[in-house]
Amino acid sequence: MPPLVHAARTPGLTTLTLDSPANRNALSATLVQELRTALATAATERPTRAVVLTHTGTTFCAGADLKFPCDPADFLALLREIAELPKPVVARVTGHVRAGGLGLLGACDIAAAGHGSTYAFTETHLGVVPAVISAPLLPRLDPRAAARYFLTAEVFGAAEATRIGLLTLDAPDADVDKVLAPVLEGLLKAGPEALAATKRLVTAPVRAALERDGAALTELSARHFASAEAREGISARFERREPSWLR
User: Fold this and answer.
1) Quick check: 192 and 49 in contact, CB under 8 A?
2) Of 1, 38, 63, 213, which one's alpha carbon is 20 to 30 angstroms from that of 74?
3) How far apart are alpha carbons 247 and 238 in whole angstroms?
4) Could you report the per-residue pLDDT of 205-245, keeping only the tens digit for each?
5) How many CB atoms lie within 10 A of CB 198?
């Protein structure tokens, strides 16, 4: 089986590319484990000043792989490892992001996207809860916006994602590399020890939420994924029909 995460290195940067377009880079057990391994390797590479997390295909990440899901505890560990990595992690998005994929954006230090990208917390429409991802996201998001989009599963665009704090910046002309260029240039000029210490300062609320609430949130996620409502919602999604609660 070919790898689902590819690593490429240029001076000062390690780029990790999610490469599972057949399932829209969904968070399978394999993809999560490969990403965790790649991050651990990047953490030990002295020339690496920052990590760029990007993707192939039209979707950055579709959320949980509903056929081959990862354990919620493993996903929590991945989010903690992004937040605790002693190097900034920059999300580069040129496609759509759903559900658990938004948790990846929340854990990253900086997130930039092209104008045509879209976002949705789709969990409630499947009968599940955006539990684990709430830890890195709630410290970053506008509270009113978080309540609205967590509850309604509405789709919104890059400009709105930037306004509410999900993205750092978006590219109106869809050239995400152009808007990221000064960001990466700034990171590459920073002293590595100062960069690591400064990251710890700015990620303190996210790391505290992951540490404090992580166990309870993984239990909440697992409980709802195992519920009858989730089985119905997920079955309806695969069968391309409305779930029973809409009939």
Assistant:
1) yes
2) 1
3) 17
4) 999 999 999 999 999 999 999 999 999 999 999 999 999 99
5) 14
